[in-house]
Amino acid sequence: MARAGLSTQRLIRAGAELADEVGFDQVTVSELARRFDVKVASLYSHLKNSHDLKTGIALLALEELAERAADALAGRAGKDALAAFANAYRDYARAHPGRYAATRFPLDSRTAAASAGGRHAQMTRAILRGYDLPEPDQTHAVRLLGSVFHGFVSLEASGGFSHSAPGSPETWTWVVDHLDALLRSLRPPGP
């Protein structure tokens, strides 16, 4: 029987908070049970195992991040859209490091297809339409932006940029400016 007050969504949200506090890799059903001061078995009517919990956290994080990115993009185009999108990712990663790590959790193909992950790709392609990139350049650019954003926020989170000047905010602005310049340089020549 399910314990009163516990639900799958409540446990996933608590797991996401735990991930932000201790790191996504440290999240387990056992640790969550300790949080609620219940036996692990009490959670199994809501979650199958730690993988199920981590999948739920990943889906929650992908949805939250997609919502933030969509809000940031509203009414913007070109470099403004690129910067807003980039900042939404960086800000989310900084505010929710465990949840951000969860966005990289491997999902099976069916779960991934039903997740907000597709919205991330659609938003990236919407930004890139402003740069008028043909295929396969557009696909390469989607991968480039994802790699740069993820690489930067991961290195920043681990202190990789804290040992020398300039500070990471200045470098972030430089990166976004140069990504914009690169994308504009890839436009096919006009008639």
From TrEMBL:
Under Gene3D superfamilies, the record lists:
Homeodomain-like (1.10.10.60), Tetracycline Repressor, domain 2 (1.10.357.10)
For this protein, the record's PROSITE patterns field holds: HTH_TETR_2
Positions of the HTH tetR-type domain: 5-65
Asked if the Swiss-Prot or TrEMBL record annotates the protein with the keyword Lyase, the reply is no
- Residue ranges crossing the lipid bilayer per the database entry: none
DNA-binding region boundaries: 28-47
Q: Which UniProt keywords apply?
A: DNA-binding, Transcription, Transcription regulation
Pfam families for this protein: TetR_C_33, TetR_N
Matching SUPFAM superfamilies:
Homeodomain-like (SSF46689), Tetracyclin repressor-like, C-terminal domain (SSF48498)
Cross-referenced InterPro entries: Homeodomain-like_sf, HTH-type_TetR-like_transc_reg, HTH_TetR, MT1864/Rv1816-like_C, Tet_transcr_reg_TetR-rel_C_sf
Protein's recorded name: TetR/AcrR family transcriptional regulator
